[in-house]
Amino acid sequence: MGSVFMNKAPPSPPESASEATVEVYALQAGHFTLPERFFVHPASETARRTVPSLSFLIVHQDPVTSEKTRIVFDLGLRRDVKRYSEPIQKHVETRQPMETLPDVTKSLAAGGLSPDDIDYVMYSHVHWDHVGEPRDFAKSTFVIGNGAKALLHGAGSLRGSHSFFEADLLPSDRTLELPNPYEEVDEETKKPQSEGKGPDFFQEWKSHENLPRVLDLFHDGSLYIVDAPGHLPGHINILAKTGPMTTVYLAGDACHDRRIMRNERKIGEWLDDHGHICCIHADKKLAEQTIERIQKLESDGVEVIFAHDFEWEEDVKNQSRFFGQA
Ligand SMILES: [Zn+2]
């Protein structure tokens, strides 16, 4: 049975997708201070924590053309807070102490890059402490999760003084909104994007291990955009294969405190001035499900880094993980 095929060489495996990797570097992009009770429950009424707003540089190299694609994930704090909208400037007063330098451009410069070298700026979400100063990136294409555009243009009403958005934040001719993870992507949308080389933002969302909705950005398993619902509409994370045995998960604001990951605390809730229940996450239930998936990844050996990951930042062995510090 099947002997007629014996002389044939077995079909060579498809271009070994699992070997492709990307480089991931952390970038300092400011620090600010949050009341602990906004993160976790139970918490002290008065405890405050100064946290980083981390950005990341991700570099993918095409194995055939050697062409590099450089992506910055989040831009952190805006170095000149006077350039935030009025309501955010008011909000910022409640987040002191705050230090906006070094900002993401200074952190890129530490490794010899300028904003003009960055092909894509991708936002985990469009809260003020992640959007930075997009004007610096005059040549980059901006990538936002599905639903983020509507938020920027004033759709919906979210509680909390941090939820103010700027309609003119991004240049419309250089901004891509990812397809809806809960709908099929129509063929017309797919075609033009997948023809060329480089990242493919308009493909079907698929499951990958325990993650139900991801985009395999370069179709080589090196870099996935992960639908990470709960914190804010359009919230996305990154799963990056950085070596044969190493994978990094950039969790954005899916979680703010490692004690939640260790099940030592629950997600915090508080009452605003009007007596409304507030939560750092727009949808707490979905946020909990997202955290459960991240816990599973971590237990499988994936390194998880949050945007405001003060424990990760404080760990001396991570100093060399910042761009230009190796
Ligand atoms: Zn944040």
Automatic annotation (TrEMBL):
Compositionally skewed regions (Basic and acidic residues) per UniProt: 188-201
InterPro entries associated with the record: MBL_superfamily_lactonases (IPR051013), Metallo-B-lactamas (IPR001279), RibonucZ/Hydroxyglut_hydro (IPR036866)
Residue span of region Disordered: 182-201
Names of the cofactor(s): Zn(2+)
Keyword Zinc set for record: yes
Ranges of residues in domain Metallo-beta-lactamase: 52-308
CDD domains: metallo-hydrolase-like_MBL-fold (cd07730)
Gene Ontology molecular function: hydrolase activity; metal ion binding
Keywords tagged on the record: Hydrolase, Metal-binding, Zinc
Entry similarity comment: Belongs to the metallo-beta-lactamase superfamily.
The protein, known as: Beta-lactamase-like protein
Natural source organism: Exophiala viscosa
